């Protein structure tokens, strides 16, 4: 069955597009730019003009700046927009390149996710189409997103809103368990991830920080790395700045480390080691290679040159080059299951421009027939002439 037949809606974040005939047209772009130019979040004199990292959280349909000191900190009940602007070229040929990420927490509301997606498109319009747009799902962020933050922290909870009310626990009720592990994308990054406070969340290879309200316990798995130990120490330092409480560090090999297991519901039957729990966050590095062992890339063309909108496979092999792309159309690149890229040519029609997201979603859902977690595949869009480094790497032969 071809990828454009018999497809279903995505499993998560089923954000439906408005059925507006002029989406993608010159009129549509002008209307969106006018709206974007009135958005306070984009008009602080720095967005689109300075290199750097900017983060906003969606709060009751509004785009609210996230403090610089909290960059890298996210709540699983929220949606965020992240803008990374960087210098491209040198001297007189220098310009700013942009990556826009809309990050969707596992428990964000449909309204927040929809607002983040819409505002991402609006921000791209404000940047005159010079940005790459990335959809980021909490469980499987792209390598490009992970590389932005030396420390990525994901905690339970979210902004107070009419759709979700976050209760503040009393001191006696606090039992928070944080898992500290190295960034799955490599490098020297570390992830701090709040997990269910039970001994079944433990893993011999990581460090865990247990906050009981009146005391903090650090449990160091026997196979954890020095980097994870150091980061856990920093996390505990930050946690104790506002409250002076005792901290106890326990190595798994120590007999007294059983105290942490007991506080997490363990008993005499609970093993002393051999704790194994899949990490709650994956990257493309964790995806298994194709069963054939060959990294096949597939390139599809979305075109209405024939008078009807068609989605056709134009190349299937180990490599795709820039010469395979036609500026009069929109193309979808399946990078051997590691990511799905959409490339929009400068001369693409408004029908082609307006359908790219719908087609990309349907393609990813078609992949579900052979790959259960295909909906987690990173999805990004780039424009002709403003390709990101990651996309250019993906199309190298």
UniProtKB/TrEMBL annotation:
Tell me the segments the record calls region Disordered. 266-295
Q: Which InterPro entries match?
A: ADF-H/Gelsolin-like_dom_sf, Gelsolin-like_dom, Gelsolin-like_dom_sf, Villin/Gelsolin
Which molecular function GO terms apply here?
actin filament binding
Q: Where is the Gelsolin-like domain?
A: 71-146, 191-239
GO cellular component terms, A-Z: actin cytoskeleton; cytoplasm
Q: GO biological process: any one?
A: actin polymerization or depolymerization
Q: What is this protein called?
A: Severin-like protein
Q: Which organism is it from?
A: Hapsidospora chrysogenum (strain ATCC 11550 / CBS 779.69 / DSM 880 / IAM 14645 / JCM 23072 / IMI 49137)
């Amino acid at each position: 069955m071809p990828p454009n037949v018999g497809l279903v809606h995505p499993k998560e974040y089923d954000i439906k597009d408005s059925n507006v005939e002029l989406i993608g047209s010159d009129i549509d772009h002008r209307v969106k730019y006018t709206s974007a130019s009135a958005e306070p979040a984009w008009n602080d004199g720095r967005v689109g003009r300075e290199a750097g990292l900017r983060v906003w959280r969606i709060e009751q349909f509004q785009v609210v700046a996230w403090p610089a000191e909290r960059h890298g900190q996210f709540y699983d009940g929220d949606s965020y927009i992240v803008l990374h602007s960087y210098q491209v070229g040198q001297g007189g040929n220098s310009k700013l390149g942009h990556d826009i990420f809309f990050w969707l927490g596992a428990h964000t509301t449909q309204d927040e996710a929809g607002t983040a997606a819409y505002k991402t498109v609006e921000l791209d319009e404000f940047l005159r189409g010079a940005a790459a747009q990335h959809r980021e799902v909490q469980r499987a962020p792209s390598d490009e997103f992970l590389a932005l933050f030396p420390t990525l922290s994901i905690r339970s909870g979210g902004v107070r809103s009419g759709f979700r009310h976050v209760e503040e626990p009393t001191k006696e009720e606090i039992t928070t368990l944080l898992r500290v592990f190295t960034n799955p994308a490599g490098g020297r990054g570390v992830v701090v991830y709040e997990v269910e406070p039970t001994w079944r969340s433990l893993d011999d290879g990581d460090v865990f920080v247990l906050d009981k309200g009146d005391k903090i316990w650090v449990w160091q798995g026997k196979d954890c790395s020095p980097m994870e130990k150091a980061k856990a120490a920093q996390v505990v330092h930050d946690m104790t700045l506002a409250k002076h409480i005792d901290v106890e560090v326990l190595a798994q090999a120590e007999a007294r480390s059983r105290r942490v297991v007991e506080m997490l519901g363990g008993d005499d039957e609970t093993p002393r080691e051999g704790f194994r729990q899949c990490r709650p966050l994956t990257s493309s590095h964790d995806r298994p290679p194709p069963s054939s062992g060959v990294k096949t890339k597939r390139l599809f063309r979305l075109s209405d040159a024939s008078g009807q909108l068609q989605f056709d496979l134009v190349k299937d092999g180990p490599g795709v080059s820039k010469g395979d792309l036609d500026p009069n159309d929109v193309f979808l690149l399946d990078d051997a299951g590691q990511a799905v890229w959409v490339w929009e040519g400068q001369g693409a029609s408004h029908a082609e421009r307006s359908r790219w997201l719908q087609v990309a979603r349907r393609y990813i859902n078609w992949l579900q027939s052979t790959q259960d977690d295909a909906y987690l595949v990173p999805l990004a869009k780039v424009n002709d002439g403003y390709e990101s480094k990651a996309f250019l790497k993906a199309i190298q032969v």
